[in-house]
Amino acid sequence: MRDALTNPFQPGSDTVPEIWAGRTAQLSDWRDVLRPRLVAGLFERGRTLVGEAGLGKSALVRRIAHEAELAGDWTTAQIRVALGTDALKRIASEVLKLADRAGLPAAREGRIAELLRRVQSVAVSGFSLALSEEGGQESYTALTDLLVEVGRAAICQDQIVLIHLDEIQNIDDERMLSQILIALGDAITHEEPVTVPGGGQITRSLPIAVYLTGLPEFADQAGTRKGATFARRFKTTTLAAIDDDDLRSALRPFVVAGWETSTGTNGAGRVRMDPDAAETIIDLCRGEPFLFQLAGERAWYAGTGDVISREDVIKGWQEAVPEATAHVERVLERLPQREREFALAMAELPTQERTLTRIAASLGHSKATDAGPAAQRLDRVRGIITRGKPYTFRHRAVEAFLTSDWPAAG
Ligand SMILES: Nc1ncnc2c1ncn2[C@@H]1O[C@H](COP(=O)(O)OP(=O)(O)OP(=O)(O)O)[C@@H](O)[C@H]1O
Ligand SMILES: [Mg+2]
């Protein structure tokens, strides 16, 4: 029963995991704020979700998009920007799909046919067109104009549009990034005149939700270079680890009722998890969704019985140790030198002594403020530390790695 086909844990995949934990603030932001406001025609900023690798950015917006899709909304696929590829092309072709869904190709106005043609050429030539003399300004205004048409169709058909652009830090060409953000931003800030019952005219926003997800570096790129306009159009949240309580709730059905396993050949059955085993998973993964899935997956394979025991978790984790190590090392390796050194120096001090002054001193700075910028970035941009009194680690796996023999299981 406990085999590869029935294992509900999915480390690494950015599809919506079967065992979902937390992120209630972001889910509720979509359900209770963003979507209702767009339905009502009110302006609402796009959402930027950044965070370190494996924190569940892609999975979160996939889940939101999945919910939206079930509600009948028009959603794009998760538009993943691969490094060195032409993001403008991808976006143009996804916007064309939205236009199809909105029924725009059937429209009789020549204006719309012309607009579709313009965006089709962006989908073919991408950013090279945007750079050319004739195509420059043209290609992103075409994208905005088509999005506005999709938005208008959505108003008429009582629909919401959701666009998800993932791995946005990979748009390394500054001009391309700027054009894309302007095109999307112009569409969400567009004001559309509508007639209200009784005949009066008011303006409303288009029902278009934009989600941008990626590594924290993106917030820098977009923040400093694009400045205030970007901040007015997109609201940025830095994701942090998942609370233990949320992980506990996620495993609860497993502990109480068991996980139903039914495969074609073996028939239905249930696999339960000992409360002890659940607590051990929670302890080992330190709030990291990727490690949570990894610990669960390994524990599932570590035994054959109907109950996943604490021993299974420990045995499974032994095999996961290299991956857990690599996961944290990747986070540390990506840090700029000053930030990495700051994190290392902070980890070496006893918890109560982790103040800016003490950390700066052990880094050999003469003034505490010299270490300020690195601390600020680790806190505000990356969500790895919190600059409280004293400073604490928000990335608990990084802390455990630097201060104990974790990921070795006791
Ligand atoms: N809320 C959640 N509950 C349980 N598991 C989750 C949750 N969110 C993500 N995961 C799991 O964590 C792992 C990492 O998720 P995901 O790929 O979405 O992270 P990411 O932040 O997009 O990472 P990257 O920066 O590498 O793209 C996946 O295995 C996913 O199934
Ligand atoms: Mg991702």
Automatic annotation (TrEMBL):
Residues 20-174 form the Orc1-like AAA ATPase domain. Keywords: ATP-binding, Nucleotide-binding. Gene3D superfamilies: P-loop containing nucleotide triphosphate hydrolases. The lineage of its organism: Bacteria, Bacillati, Actinomycetota, Actinomycetes, Micrococcales. The keyword Nucleotide-binding applies. It holds the Pfam family AAA_16. This is ATP-binding protein. The keyword Translocase does not apply. It comes from Microbacterium betulae. It comes from the Bacteria. GO terms for molecular function: ATP binding. InterPro entries: AAA_16, P-loop_NTPase.
